[in-house]
Amino acid sequence: MKIHNFSAGPSILPQEVMQQAAAAVQNLDNSGLSLLEISHRSKAFVAVMDEACETAIRLTGLENKGYKALFLQGGASLQFLMVAYNLLENKAGYVNTGTWSSNAIKEAKALGTVVELASSKEQNFNYIPKGFDIPSDLDYVHLTTNNTIFGTQLKTIPETPVPLTADMSSDIFSREWDYSKFDLFYAGAQKNMGPAGTTLVIIKEALLDKVSRHIPSMLKYKTHWEKDSMFNTPPVFAVYTSLLNLRWVEAQGGLKALGAKNAAKASLIYDEIDRNSKFEGFAAVEDRSAMNATFNLVNPDDAEAFDKIWNAAGVSGLKGHRSVGGYRASMYNALSIDSVQVLVDCMQTLEENY
Ligand SMILES: *Cc1c(COP(=O)(O)O)cnc(C)c1O
Description:
The protein is of the alpha/beta class and 354 residues long. It has helices spanning 15-26, 43-59, 75-87, 99-109, 221-226, 236-251, 254-275, 303-312, 337-353; strands spanning 4-5, 67-72, 91-96, 113-119, 141-144, 146-147, 152-153, 164-167, 184-188, 199-204, 279-281, 292-297, 315-316, 327-330. Helix 1 packs antiparallel against helix 6 and helix 7 (254-275) runs parallel beside helix 9.
């Protein structure tokens, strides 16, 4: 039976990416050696890293604009610390739109003053705050563009008088978007880019020497910038597989084509959530995420019947995060609209039969 993988992360990757990655573990580009047993300083792997960085910059439209892409480790969670370590001298502004934003705030607070510019915490993060002031004496502003757990997504990039940074872990490469408005953004690979184990950081050169504190080498963006992500041994499998997926993104027609596909998938599921008397959406309609759709049963007693229906249809990974409950359908780039249709059919089966 075909499995329809709605997992929030680690999450679905294109079948062909999985096959190519498996083949490279056996034999990288007919070298007779596994991707896992060659030097990261070999010509073959340096070419992989270079192409991965170039493709990430090309897809985000940032060529010749003073940015570099870095493939680091430690997940988005280490970026919560690194952003503050490298940029927070006095005071930074954070917008609190969920669990991950809250974690970023917590890390930054250890290094300076954090101003919470806005928060949707009082409504269990079911919307994105808008129209808040951004003082010009901040070192930077930090946003989370897609709130994986709550199913909200930033649609408009706020104008800021100070550098703009963002956690894009769960919606990077999912839509056309003016990435040049951001001075630094990062994403753990395991949502929409590749396997767990690497974190993409795209950073502007102007942000490299911003603070007076001593920064340990591994935590310093300048170290990784100067060494082109090869200061220490990079996670070769995660970087290679991310490259395969970025090639796939380009072959699909890039962010414009994938953005349209993702919008069509989102319309399909949200139209059904709104139409079907058995379900209600969690997130504010205008802030709904095209990546993670969160919804609940109107009557929780239907859970047993609904769970049976979608399990039987091969739907996987639909359980909501414990802080929201209900269901969460994660619809990253590799998920086909046919899989969303299977889920919609399950929702209709519930309504028709119970
Ligand atoms: C999953 C996720 C994280 C955590 O990423 P790690 O790589 O596990 O540290 C951070 N931010 C967002 C938006 C996420 O979806």
